[in-house]
Amino acid sequence: MSARGGRPRVVQANARAALLLASAMFSADAPAAPNEPTLATRCAELAGLTLSADAIALPTHGVQIDTAEMIAATARNNQDGEFCRVTGSIKAVKAGTPDIRFDLNLPRRWNGRALQVGGGGYDGIVVSGTGVMPFSPNRAPLAQGYATFGDDSGHVGNPAFAEFGLLDEAVINFGYAHLKKTHDAALALIQRAYGRPPEHMYFAGGSTGGREGYTVMQRFPDDYDGVIANSPALNFSGVRLLGVKVGQAEYATPGGFVPPALLQRVYQRTLDICDRLDGAADGIVSDVAACRSHEPEVIDALRCGDADDGDPSQRNDCLTGTQLATLLVLRDGLSLPYALAWGATRYRGYNVFQGTQFNGMLGLAHSPVRQTPPTFVANGYLFAQGDGYVRYFVARDAAFDSQKFDVLAPGKYQRQVVALSQTIGAMNTDLTRYIARGGKMITLQGLADEVISPNQTIAYHQALIDRFGVDKVDAFMRLYMVPGFQHGSGAFIPSADLLGALDNWVTHGASPETLSGCGCTRRGQTFSGSASLRRIATATELPTISTIPSIDIVLTDSPHIT
Ligand SMILES: [Ca+2]
């Protein structure tokens, strides 16, 4: 899966900007001064190059460029125009630790900007930097003229697997160090290729890539001018520990398994009661707060009556007390009696009874039988990821049984749990340096996200406001909470030009407000109307942040929606 030629393209970023940037385009093949090398010449010179360790601010054994070649605009499957494709490896310090593999793409028509692209899950696959940005209608950033780059986070593997957690240097790379090492390597190569550094450096990612976005603001604030960090796994340890608890509720407790059909019923009953509370019977719970006030009614409508005994695995029409307890683990999140890094003691729960579907590919378990090890679809995404975290990162024993791990009182493992939350977590609210030097950021987060709790993203945003005040946060950050949007899927899937908005903000000082865009997907169907994402969190809106439907859907031309 890691073969260089066949790398899957992971998260990608995108912008609009073609018009905006046209005047600023730096063209490497523009009428050059006599004897000035072309990009093709410089690209060829990069092949086989090495960079010494002192080119990278963190400890490495230097950088090896493996390949560098011009990709023609007419090359098969290339929609990004002509560019120099560079692949390289950043050498690990310790023998036995994998190198960090990275890709760097240098467009012939450079817009003077660079974009680092984040990964997903437990990473392990090189982010190519050549694709389009998720949830955006626009051309790929590389096609727009951005120099783009990404890496594999410092190990080779399936993003579902956590075996690299046994290697200290690989854990540190995954936590934060790969971001800086690859940034520094890419910056040095960009300067060689174009003869000057980028005017602006951006980062974009979602999920793990969202955590990476917050991580670079917290740890390397001088390196970036703008960050897009969607659905961020800010409290990495928190979400993994909660996954362990969910697995225990489903499999260590007899009757705790909730079949997919019953999860669908939970979702449907929620819609019956909450869909219209926002004024539109559109299959989207937009007023999450109003829906929350109806939660007892939703739960009562789902609860089995006294006469409803029987084998829970054979019935899909009501929740037993034990099944409800499993869902309440998700709803309530974690409250730890010990503190993770930066004083974090909570992982906020999910909107289980406010329109989140838990019977999809990233939802709860589909099988009443626990696999060894547990797998995504059979046993649930949160549980499978949490199980790998406990076995490889915490206990550092592949045979450890996460069903026996006491999340609230981990005993001899507590020190490691806390240390990991420092290495991998992004809960530090000290963005003083990033804010002071004018950095900007945008976060898009689904209110129906079943992987990253939207309430954790809101809580971190609130913590920033508590620390810096509304005006200061408003001046550097935009948070767009999207109803009906899960972790990539959902009743509503947005599509908006976040990179263009970020670039316009950084370059021209035009702060994003309501974002418009489409081909969005609504209830499984793409429509060609328009949708607007209203920004959350102006000073006046903040007290009621979670009560504001943040999406307006305006159908402008013959949508195919039933
Ligand atoms: Ca609605």
Brief overview:
This protein is α/β, with parallel strands linked by helices.
Task: List strands and helices in order, with pairings.
Layout: H1 18-22, E1 26-27, H2 39-46, E2 50-51, E3 63-71, E4 83-90, E5 100-107, E6 109-110, E7 113-117, H3 141-144, E8 147-151, H4 168-194, E9 200-206, H5 208-219, E10 226-230, H6 236-252, H7 260-274, H8 288-293, H9 295-302, H10 321-332, E11 334-335, E12 346-347, H11 376-379, H12 381-394, H13 414-424, H14 432-436, E13 440-446, H15 454-468, H16 470-476, E14 477-482, E15 492-493, H17 498-508, E16 515-517, E17 520-522, E18 525-527, E19 530-533, E20 551-554
Parallel strand pairs: 7-8, 7-9, 9-10, 10-13, 13-14
Antiparallel strand pairs: 1-6, 2-3, 3-4, 4-5, 5-8, 11-12, 15-17, 16-19, 17-18, 19-20
Helix pairs in contact: 2-4, 4-5, 6-10, 6-12, 7-9, 15-16
The structure holds calcium ion.
Calcium ion is lined by residues 275, 278, 280, 282, 284, 286.
Question: Which key features would you list for this structure?
Answer:
562 residues; alpha/beta; 3-stranded antiparallel β-sheet; binds calcium ion
Please outline the major beta sheet.
10 strands, mixed
Helix content: 25-40%
Strand order across the biggest sheet? 2-3-4-5-8-7-9-10-13-14
Gap from first CA to last CA = 40 Å
**Low confidence ranges:** 1-29, 537-550, 553-562
What Rg is obtained from the alpha carbons, in whole angstroms?
A: 24 Å
| Total beta strand runs | 20
- How many DSSP H or I helices? 17
Q: Mean pLDDT score, rounded? A: 87
**Structural shape:** globular
What small molecules accompany the polymer chains? calcium ion
Strand content: 15-25%
* Helix/strand structural class: alpha/beta
